């Protein structure tokens, strides 16, 4: 069932239909190695009740459901969530549905919107999207912790060190076109740990996962990166064609002789406990 979010708990702005579709069809799959590494470490399976915070178009939920987990996803972006519904809830009605993958529920908003659907406490909470605003993420994790079983795992994910993320170079296009005084920071060393601490969680480990961004052609690379929302401010300051043009120029160094585009990246994740 889709329900509205509570006032005051705001996340990223809602994307256009095209941008949401580009995220689902091009960009979201780049983080599959991260999802799988976390699920393997936490032994996600039929006994797992998982809450995905900022679940987007639902690919991470789909992978968890394929392992037998009962999954619930919440997101502020209605267009991305509609695509998650297509993947997880193919029936005409919104709400919970038992399928070959297990039970899935989706709610529009923050974790507080999942409370009415929560039959029993969650055993795993994930926040995989590295573009979620830090302040919103802390508030969301505090809310999610109230719905989780004591000792439940809470996973936060983000970019690895800038020197290990080729995409950090490309993000300079965003800061230059937007005229930002401060650079677009991919990540700082203890960002994830600080957010977990601020949310009242206790740390219980971390890991790194290689997540290369690989695209079949330049057009897909540009569309995929723009769909992340990291270039929104640059588009507002200039226009979409200008951003696309300069982004393609920055990506040229990562274009291979066969026309594909590949950037090597490392992502970090932190496991905390409620």
Automatic annotation (TrEMBL):
Annotated segments matching region Disordered: 1-20
Domain of life: Bacteria
GO molecular function terms attached to this record: methyltransferase activity
InterPro entries: SAM-dependent_MTases_sf
One BP term from GO: methylation
Keywords: Methyltransferase, Transferase
Name this polypeptide is given: SAM-dependent methyltransferase
């Amino acid at each position: 069932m889709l329900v509205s979010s509570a006032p005051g708990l705001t996340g990223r702005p809602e994307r256009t239909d095209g941008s949401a579709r580009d995220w689902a069809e091009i960009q979201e799959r780049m983080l599959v190695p991260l999802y799988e590494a976390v699920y393997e470490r936490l032994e996600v399976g039929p006994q797992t009740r998982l809450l995905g915070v900022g679940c987007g178009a639902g690919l991470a939920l789909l992978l968890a459901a394929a392992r037998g987990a009962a999954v619930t996803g919440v997101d502020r972006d209605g267009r991305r969530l509609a695509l998650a519904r297509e993947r997880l809830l193919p029936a005409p009605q919104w709400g919970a549905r038992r399928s070959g993958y297990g039970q899935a529920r989706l709610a529009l908003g923050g974790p507080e919107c999942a409370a009415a659907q929560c039959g029993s406490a969650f055993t795993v909470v994930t926040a995989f999207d590295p573009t979620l605003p830090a302040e919103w993420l802390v508030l969301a994790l505090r809310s999610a912790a109230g719905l989780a079983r004591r000792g439940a795992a809470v996973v936060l994910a983000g970019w690895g060190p800038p020197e290990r993320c080729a995409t950090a170079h490309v993000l300079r296009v965003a800061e230059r076109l937007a005229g930002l005084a401060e650079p677009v920071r991919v990540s700082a060393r203890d960002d994830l740990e600080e957010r977990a601490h601020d949310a009242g969680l206790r740390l219980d480990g971390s890991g790194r996962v290689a997540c290369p961004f690989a695209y079949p052609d330049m057009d897909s690379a540009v569309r995929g990166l723009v769909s992340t929302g990291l270039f929104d401010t640059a588009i507002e300051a200039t226009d979409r064609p200008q951003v696309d043009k300069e982004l393609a120029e920055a990506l040229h160094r990562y274009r291979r002789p066969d026309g594909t585009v590949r950037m090597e990246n490392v992502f970090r994740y932190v496991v905390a406990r409620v």
